Amino acid sequence: MSTPTAAALPAARPVPARPLTRDLRLAARQVLDEQRTFWRNRSRAFFSFALPLMFLVIFAGLNHGDVLHDRGGIPADAFVVPGLLAYGVIMATFTGIATDLAIARDTGVLKRAQGTPLPPWAFVAGRVGSAVLVAAAVSALTLLIAAFGYGVHVPASTVPGLVAALVFGTACCAALGVAVVRVIPNAEAAGAVTNGLVLPLTFISGVWGEFGGMPSWLHDIAQLFPIEHLAAALQLAFDPRTTGAGIAGGDLLVLALWGAAGVLLGLRFLRTQLRRG
């Protein structure tokens, strides 16, 4: 019996590449599915969406009418509101994404996603995109409450600075939310780990206002992390004394560097999880 030569063997047909538009549609549908899941989970929606707004009402109400003499006599709310806006972005993106992916990892959803028509990047994009939508909603409501409830407005000239700070801050916190899952031992510990990282930094980063007598070394520590720079970039945009576009170049650079580190570490985490699957 003769053995067929290589030339006689039928040529293997190339596997057609999946159209990018189809993947984009799948990712968009995943975002919508994640949004439905988010709003149906009342406790999750409360901590990521309602709680930052409650803190806004409480702290802005406590400081309403006060002025900061060490900052040129600006209204205290013009300093507190942008700090709480930063906190809302952090809760919606960093904390929300880290908790969601930790649950997906522990329940096996992240591994099982490989056996579905949904590409892994679209699966993660659905989580991230949903968190970004929540952050946008929190930001919009914070600005509305600040304007109509407490008379705190962003000057028209510094709107570009406000937008830049929100875009860079949201992207940075979202990337770090994916990366930090590496250090979360299990889904039950997600809240403890994320809050343990965020809350101490918010107090030394000016998110809740200024605390007199804080040691300089605590301020130096805060300067190393992105929360301080997100709050500072937003506070610059809200400050009525700011001239020009209100773009804090140095703070945005730090946010970009932390965001890039988050992307690299997040990709490494996701590749590890997919290889294990």
What structural category do the secondary elements indicate?
mainly alpha
The major pleated sheet works out as:
2 strands, antiparallel
Please give the number of β-strands: 2
* Major sheet strand order: 1-2
Q: State mean pLDDT (0 to 100 scale).
A: 87
Query: First CA to last CA: what distance?
Result: 43 Å
* Gyration radius, rounded: 23 Å
Please state roughly what percent of the residues sit in beta strands, choosing from under 5%, 5-15%, 15-25%, 25-35%, 35-45% or over 45%.
Answer: under 5%
Count of spatially separate domains: 1
Any chance you could write out the topology, listing elements then pairs?
Elements: H1 20-40, H2 42-63, E1 67-68, E2 74-75, H3 77-106, H4 109-112, H5 120-150, H6 159-179, H7 190-204, H8 216-223, H9 226-238, H10 249-276
Antiparallel strand pairs: 1-2
Helix pairs in contact: 1-5, 2-3, 2-5, 3-5, 3-6, 3-7, 3-9, 5-6, 6-9, 6-10, 9-10
Describe this structure in words.
Helix 3 (77-106) runs antiparallel to helix 7. The chain has helices at 20-40, 42-63, 77-106, 109-112, 120-150, 159-179, 190-204, 216-223, 226-238, 249-276, and strands spanning 67-68, 74-75. It has a two-stranded antiparallel ribbon with strand order 1-2. The protein is 70% helix and 1% strand. The protein has one domain (20-276). The protein has ten helices and two strands, in the order H-H-E-E-H-H-H-H-H-H-H-H. It is an all-alpha fold and 277 residues long.
